[in-house]
From TrEMBL:
Presence of the UniProt keyword Transcription in the record: no
Cofactor annotation remark: The heme is bound between the two transmembrane subunits.
Listed name of the protein: Succinate dehydrogenase cytochrome b556 subunit
InterPro entries, per the entry: SQR/QFR_C/D, Succ_DH_cyt_bsu_CS, Succ_DH_cytb556, SuccDH_FuR_B_TM-su
Organism: Paramagnetospirillum kuznetsovii
Assembly mode: Part of an enzyme complex containing four subunits: a flavoprotein, an iron-sulfur protein, plus two membrane-anchoring proteins, SdhC and SdhD. The complex can form homotrimers.
Keyword tags: Heme, Iron, Membrane, Metal-binding, Transmembrane, Transmembrane helix
Transmembrane recorded as keyword: yes
GO biological process: tricarboxylic acid cycle
A cellular component term, taken from the record's GO annotations: membrane
CDD domains: SQR_TypeC_SdhC
Protein's cellular compartments: Membrane
Ranges that cross the membrane: 21-46, 58-83, 104-123
Encoding gene per record: sdhC
Length: 124
């Protein structure tokens, strides 16, 4: 038996992860981000219930540059997860499984999420 000096799978410098796999991983990550964002939302609502001083403190935190970046990221995660969830509903009824269609719908999800996030922040 001869042993060959070759890897069992492609090296990370060779292997290119498929776009749909990146979107799938992103969907899971945004789900976690939304759960964490719900805790922040709960903190903000609870601070409003505790009175003006607590609410002012929460507003100062969420109104800071870091707070706004977190809220912007949470908004992006929300719209990405929503748009990708709609894409999955189409998959559930059997549409869009072909590689070209899956890539096209994935790009549409990313574009729609970016556009909705910017639109929400412009309006808000």
């Amino acid at each position: 038996m001869t042993t060959r000096n070759r890897p069992l799978s492609p090296h990370v410098q060779i292997y290119k992860m498929p776009f749909t796999a990146i979107l799938s991983i992103s969907h899971r990550i945004t789900g976690i981000a939304l759960a964490l964002g719900t805790v922040v939302l709960g903190y903000w609502l609870a601070s409003a219930a505790y009175g003006p001083a607590a609410y002012g403190h929460a507003q100062a935190i969420l109104g800071s540059l870091v707070g706004k970046l977190v809220l912007f990221g949470w908004t992006g995660a929300l719209f990405y997860h929503l748009c990708n969830g709609i894409r999955h509903l189409f998959w559930d009824v059997g549409h869009g499984y072909e590689k070209a269609e899956a890539d096209k719908s994935g790009r549409m999800v990313v574009a729609a999420a970016a556009a909705l996030t910017l639109l929400a922040w412009i309006i808000g």
